[in-house]
Protein backbone atom coordinates (compact mmCIF):
# COMPACT_ATOMS: atom_id res chain seq x y z
CA UNK A 1 0.00 0.00 0.00
CA UNK A 2 1.35 3.43 -0.94
CA UNK A 3 2.45 5.75 1.82
CA UNK A 4 2.03 8.77 -0.46
CA UNK A 5 -0.95 11.11 -0.13
CA UNK A 6 -1.77 14.19 -2.23
CA UNK A 7 -3.67 16.67 -0.09
CA UNK A 8 -5.50 19.81 -1.20
CA UNK A 9 -6.34 22.59 1.26
CA UNK A 10 -9.05 24.83 -0.23
CA UNK A 11 -8.78 28.44 0.96
CA UNK A 12 -12.27 29.47 -0.10
CA UNK A 13 -13.72 32.95 -0.60
CA UNK A 14 -16.92 32.96 1.49
CA UNK A 15 -19.71 35.51 1.09
CA UNK A 16 -23.30 35.87 2.32
CA UNK A 17 -24.90 33.66 -0.33
CA UNK A 18 -25.00 30.07 0.91
CA UNK A 19 -25.78 28.84 -2.59
CA UNK A 20 -22.77 30.62 -4.08
CA UNK A 21 -20.48 29.46 -1.28
CA UNK A 22 -21.47 25.83 -1.69
CA UNK A 23 -21.25 26.00 -5.48
CA UNK A 24 -17.75 27.45 -5.23
CA UNK A 25 -16.71 24.73 -2.79
CA UNK A 26 -17.99 22.03 -5.15
CA UNK A 27 -16.09 23.61 -8.05
CA UNK A 28 -12.87 23.72 -6.00
CA UNK A 29 -13.23 20.06 -5.04
CA UNK A 30 -13.49 19.22 -8.73
CA UNK A 31 -10.47 21.39 -9.53
CA UNK A 32 -8.40 19.77 -6.77
CA UNK A 33 -9.35 16.28 -7.93
CA UNK A 34 -8.29 17.16 -11.48
CA UNK A 35 -4.86 18.02 -10.07
CA UNK A 36 -4.51 14.59 -8.50
CA UNK A 37 -5.65 15.35 -4.96
CA UNK A 38 -6.84 12.27 -3.07
CA UNK A 39 -8.00 14.18 0.01
CA UNK A 40 -9.58 17.64 -0.23
CA UNK A 41 -10.23 19.81 2.83
CA UNK A 42 -12.49 22.88 3.07
CA UNK A 43 -12.31 25.72 5.62
CA UNK A 44 -14.33 26.37 8.75
CA UNK A 45 -17.79 27.78 7.95
CA UNK A 46 -17.36 27.24 4.21
CA UNK A 47 -21.08 27.86 3.54
CA UNK A 48 -21.57 31.11 5.47
CA UNK A 49 -19.78 34.11 6.94
CA UNK A 50 -18.10 33.38 10.27
CA UNK A 51 -19.81 35.21 13.14
CA UNK A 52 -22.20 34.59 16.02
CA UNK A 53 -24.84 36.71 14.25
CA UNK A 54 -24.81 34.25 11.31
CA UNK A 55 -24.72 30.81 12.92
CA UNK A 56 -28.41 30.40 13.72
CA UNK A 57 -29.52 31.98 10.43
CA UNK A 58 -27.41 29.65 8.29
CA UNK A 59 -27.80 26.54 10.46
CA UNK A 60 -29.12 23.39 8.82
CA UNK A 61 -29.42 19.70 9.68
CA UNK A 62 -26.59 17.31 8.89
CA UNK A 63 -27.02 15.84 6.36
CA UNK A 64 -28.51 18.98 4.82
CA UNK A 65 -28.27 21.02 1.64
CA UNK A 66 -24.62 22.05 2.11
CA UNK A 67 -23.27 18.70 3.25
CA UNK A 68 -25.28 16.80 0.63
CA UNK A 69 -23.58 18.90 -2.05
CA UNK A 70 -20.18 18.02 -0.61
CA UNK A 71 -21.18 14.36 -0.47
CA UNK A 72 -22.06 14.39 -4.16
CA UNK A 73 -18.82 16.23 -5.04
CA UNK A 74 -16.80 13.58 -3.22
CA UNK A 75 -18.63 10.82 -5.06
CA UNK A 76 -18.52 12.43 -8.49
CA UNK A 77 -14.80 13.14 -8.24
CA UNK A 78 -13.78 9.97 -6.42
CA UNK A 79 -12.00 11.76 -3.57
CA UNK A 80 -12.12 11.97 0.20
CA UNK A 81 -13.49 15.33 1.40
CA UNK A 82 -13.14 16.95 4.81
CA UNK A 83 -16.07 19.33 4.62
CA UNK A 84 -14.64 22.20 6.66
CA UNK A 85 -17.54 23.06 8.89
CA UNK A 86 -21.12 24.29 8.76
CA UNK A 87 -23.48 25.53 11.47
CA UNK A 88 -25.51 22.42 12.32
CA UNK A 89 -28.98 22.55 13.89
CA UNK A 90 -30.18 19.62 15.96
CA UNK A 91 -32.54 19.36 18.91
CA UNK A 92 -32.85 23.11 19.31
CA UNK A 93 -29.07 23.56 19.51
CA UNK A 94 -26.49 24.82 17.02
CA UNK A 95 -23.09 23.18 16.58
CA UNK A 96 -20.01 23.99 14.50
CA UNK A 97 -19.77 20.72 12.61
CA UNK A 98 -17.35 19.08 10.19
CA UNK A 99 -18.42 16.17 8.00
CA UNK A 100 -16.04 13.79 6.24
CA UNK A 101 -17.06 12.00 3.05
CA UNK A 102 -15.55 9.05 1.23
CA UNK A 103 -15.10 8.65 -2.53
CA UNK A 104 -18.27 6.56 -2.72
CA UNK A 105 -20.32 9.28 -1.04
CA UNK A 106 -20.31 7.58 2.35
CA UNK A 107 -20.27 9.64 5.57
CA UNK A 108 -17.07 8.62 7.33
CA UNK A 109 -17.14 10.96 10.32
CA UNK A 110 -18.83 13.96 11.91
CA UNK A 111 -16.96 16.25 14.29
CA UNK A 112 -18.58 18.94 16.40
CA UNK A 113 -16.19 21.65 17.56
CA UNK A 114 -15.19 20.70 21.10
CA UNK A 115 -13.62 23.92 22.37
CA UNK A 116 -15.74 27.02 21.80
CA UNK A 117 -13.98 30.24 20.88
CA UNK A 118 -14.63 32.60 23.80
CA UNK A 119 -11.84 35.17 24.08
CA UNK A 120 -11.32 38.79 25.02
CA UNK A 121 -8.00 40.21 23.83
CA UNK A 122 -7.53 43.75 25.11
CA UNK A 123 -7.19 46.10 22.15
CA UNK A 124 -7.72 43.18 19.76
CA UNK A 125 -10.85 41.07 19.60
CA UNK A 126 -13.75 39.96 21.79
CA UNK A 127 -15.72 36.95 20.60
CA UNK A 128 -18.04 34.43 22.27
CA UNK A 129 -19.11 31.38 20.28
CA UNK A 130 -20.85 29.99 23.36
CA UNK A 131 -23.49 32.71 23.06
CA UNK A 132 -24.92 30.70 20.15
CA UNK A 133 -23.08 27.40 19.79
CA UNK A 134 -23.05 24.23 21.86
CA UNK A 135 -19.86 22.14 22.11
CA UNK A 136 -19.22 18.66 20.82
CA UNK A 137 -17.93 16.05 23.24
CA UNK A 138 -16.03 13.49 21.21
CA UNK A 139 -12.84 12.83 19.32
CA UNK A 140 -13.21 12.26 15.59
CA UNK A 141 -11.00 10.13 13.34
CA UNK A 142 -11.35 8.44 9.98
CA UNK A 143 -9.22 6.04 8.00
CA UNK A 144 -7.59 6.59 4.63
CA UNK A 145 -5.75 3.79 2.83
CA UNK A 146 -2.54 5.58 3.82
CA UNK A 147 -3.24 6.54 7.45
CA UNK A 148 -5.65 7.48 10.20
CA UNK A 149 -6.66 11.17 10.31
CA UNK A 150 -7.79 13.22 13.33
CA UNK A 151 -10.13 16.21 13.06
CA UNK A 152 -10.34 19.42 15.10
CA UNK A 153 -11.93 22.76 14.31
CA UNK A 154 -10.05 26.05 14.74
CA UNK A 155 -9.85 26.73 18.51
CA UNK A 156 -9.42 22.99 19.08
CA UNK A 157 -5.83 23.35 17.86
CA UNK A 158 -4.88 25.37 20.96
CA UNK A 159 -5.52 22.40 23.23
CA UNK A 160 -2.43 20.20 23.09
CA UNK A 161 -4.09 17.36 24.95
CA UNK A 162 -6.52 16.78 22.09
CA UNK A 163 -3.71 16.34 19.56
CA UNK A 164 -1.86 14.07 21.98
CA UNK A 165 -4.87 11.79 22.21
CA UNK A 166 -5.16 11.68 18.44
CA UNK A 167 -1.49 10.71 18.21
CA UNK A 168 -2.03 7.92 20.76
CA UNK A 169 -5.01 6.75 18.70
CA UNK A 170 -2.64 6.23 15.77
CA UNK A 171 -3.26 9.36 13.69
CA UNK A 172 -0.45 10.49 11.42
CA UNK A 173 -2.30 13.52 10.01
CA UNK A 174 -4.35 16.11 11.91
CA UNK A 175 -6.59 18.54 10.02
CA UNK A 176 -7.99 21.73 11.51
CA UNK A 177 -10.43 23.75 9.41
CA UNK A 178 -10.14 27.16 11.08
CA UNK A 179 -10.65 30.88 10.82
CA UNK A 180 -8.07 32.69 12.91
CA UNK A 181 -8.41 36.46 12.82
CA UNK A 182 -6.15 39.44 12.24
CA UNK A 183 -5.22 39.59 15.94
CA UNK A 184 -4.36 35.96 16.67
CA UNK A 185 -3.49 34.82 13.16
CA UNK A 186 -0.20 36.65 12.66
CA UNK A 187 1.29 35.45 15.95
CA UNK A 188 -0.31 32.07 16.72
CA UNK A 189 -1.59 30.35 13.55
CA UNK A 190 1.64 28.85 12.21
CA UNK A 191 3.19 28.55 15.66
CA UNK A 192 0.35 26.35 16.90
CA UNK A 193 0.55 24.15 13.81
CA UNK A 194 4.27 23.65 14.30
CA UNK A 195 3.78 22.94 17.99
CA UNK A 196 1.14 20.28 17.43
CA UNK A 197 3.19 18.70 14.61
CA UNK A 198 6.47 18.69 16.56
CA UNK A 199 5.09 17.48 19.88
CA UNK A 200 3.15 14.61 18.32
CA UNK A 201 5.38 13.90 15.31
CA UNK A 202 2.49 14.11 12.85
CA UNK A 203 1.51 16.11 9.79
CA UNK A 204 -0.78 19.06 10.63
CA UNK A 205 -2.92 20.89 8.08
CA UNK A 206 -4.97 24.03 8.64
CA UNK A 207 -7.60 25.31 6.24
CA UNK A 208 -8.81 28.92 6.42
CA UNK A 209 -11.35 30.93 4.48
CA UNK A 210 -9.82 33.55 2.20
CA UNK A 211 -9.58 37.03 3.68
CA UNK A 212 -12.50 39.40 3.14
CA UNK A 213 -11.67 42.83 4.51
CA UNK A 214 -15.32 43.91 4.21
CA UNK A 215 -16.51 41.13 6.54
CA UNK A 216 -17.40 41.68 10.20
CA UNK A 217 -14.86 38.97 11.07
CA UNK A 218 -11.70 39.10 8.95
CA UNK A 219 -9.90 35.77 8.51
CA UNK A 220 -6.11 35.56 8.51
CA UNK A 221 -5.91 33.01 5.68
CA UNK A 222 -2.50 31.31 5.27
CA UNK A 223 -3.76 27.73 4.93
CA UNK A 224 -0.73 25.56 5.64
CA UNK A 225 0.64 22.04 5.95
CA UNK A 226 3.43 21.32 8.46
CA UNK A 227 5.35 18.04 8.59
CA UNK A 228 6.40 16.00 11.68
CA UNK A 229 9.76 17.81 11.77
CA UNK A 230 7.85 21.12 12.02
CA UNK A 231 8.83 22.22 8.51
CA UNK A 232 6.25 24.14 6.50
CA UNK A 233 5.62 21.89 3.49
CA UNK A 234 3.14 24.16 1.71
CA UNK A 235 1.33 27.41 2.45
CA UNK A 236 -0.26 30.46 0.85
CA UNK A 237 -1.12 34.08 1.59
CA UNK A 238 -4.69 35.31 2.15
CA UNK A 239 -6.36 35.14 -1.27
CA UNK A 240 -8.64 32.35 -2.48
CA UNK A 241 -6.71 29.38 -3.79
CA UNK A 242 -5.79 25.74 -3.32
CA UNK A 243 -2.70 24.62 -1.43
CA UNK A 244 -1.36 21.26 -2.63
CA UNK A 245 0.94 19.10 -0.56
CA UNK A 246 2.40 15.66 -1.15
CA UNK A 247 2.72 13.73 2.09
CA UNK A 248 4.93 10.71 2.73
CA UNK A 249 3.38 8.92 5.69
CA UNK A 250 6.50 6.75 6.11
CA UNK A 251 8.28 9.96 7.12
CA UNK A 252 6.21 10.02 10.31
CA UNK A 253 7.79 6.77 11.47
CA UNK A 254 11.23 7.94 10.40
CA UNK A 255 10.95 11.05 12.58
CA UNK A 256 9.64 8.97 15.49
CA UNK A 257 12.65 6.66 15.18
CA UNK A 258 15.11 9.57 15.07
CA UNK A 259 13.58 11.25 18.12
CA UNK A 260 11.78 8.45 20.00
CA UNK A 261 9.42 10.51 22.13
CA UNK A 262 6.91 7.68 22.32
CA UNK A 263 9.22 5.34 24.21
CA UNK A 264 10.80 8.12 26.27
CA UNK A 265 7.67 9.64 27.74
CA UNK A 266 7.58 9.59 31.54
CA UNK A 267 3.92 8.82 32.06
CA UNK A 268 4.63 8.31 35.74
CA UNK A 269 5.62 11.98 36.01
CA UNK A 270 2.77 13.79 34.28
CA UNK A 271 -0.10 13.52 36.72
CA UNK A 272 -0.56 16.50 39.03
CA UNK A 273 -1.10 15.33 42.60
CA UNK A 274 -2.27 17.89 45.13
CA UNK A 275 -1.15 17.24 48.67
CA UNK A 276 -3.78 17.80 51.32
From TrEMBL:
Belongs to the carbon-nitrogen hydrolase superfamily. NIT1/NIT2 family. Its EC number is 3.5.1.3. The keyword Transmembrane does not apply. Residues 5-249 form the CN hydrolase domain. It catalyses: 2-oxosuccinamate + H2O = oxaloacetate + NH4(+); 2-oxoglutaramate + H2O = 2-oxoglutarate + NH4(+). CDD domains: nit. It holds the Pfam family CN_hydrolase. One of its GO terms (molecular function) is omega-amidase activity. GO terms for cellular component: mitochondrion. Keywords: Hydrolase. Transmembrane segments: none annotated. The lineage of its organism: Eukaryota, Metazoa, Ecdysozoa, Arthropoda, Crustacea. This is omega-amidase. One of its GO terms (biological process) is glutamine metabolic process. It comes from Penaeus vannamei. It comes from the Eukaryota. InterPro entries: C-N_Hydrolase, C-N_Hydrolase_sf, Nit1/2_C-N_Hydrolase.
Amino acid sequence: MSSKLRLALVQLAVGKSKLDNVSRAVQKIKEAASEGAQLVALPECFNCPYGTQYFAEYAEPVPGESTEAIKEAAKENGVYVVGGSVPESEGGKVYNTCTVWGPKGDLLAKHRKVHLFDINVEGGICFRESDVLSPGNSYTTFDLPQCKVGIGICYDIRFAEMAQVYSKMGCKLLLYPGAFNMTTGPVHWELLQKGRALDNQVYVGTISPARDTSATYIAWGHSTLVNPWADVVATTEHEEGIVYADLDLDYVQKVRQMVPLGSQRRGDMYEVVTKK
